[in-house]
Specification:
Number of domains: 1
Structural class: alpha+beta
Radius of gyration: 12 Å
Strand content: 25-35%
Number of helices: 2
Order of helices and strands: HHEE
Mean pLDDT: 91
Shape: globular
Largest sheet: 2 strands, antiparallel
Strand order of the largest sheet: 1-2
């Protein structure tokens, strides 16, 4: 969640969590993934990684 718009969705959908790209990268690395790449375009986020 990089913008205030992201908060809107967590208020609408109960139990939903929006993570920042750096948080997801950390979680993936802790789970044993490597070569984590983050691709951002407008409000879209795509993360690729190898295990």
């Amino acid at each position: 969640g990089d913008t205030d718009k992201d908060k809107k969705w967590t208020e609408i959908i109960g139990g939903m969590t929006i993570y920042k790209d750096a948080e997801l990268k950390t979680y993936l690395e802790q789970a044993g993934f490597h070569d984590v790449q983050i691709h951002k375009k407008k409000s879209w986020l795509c993360i690729t990684a190898w295990k």
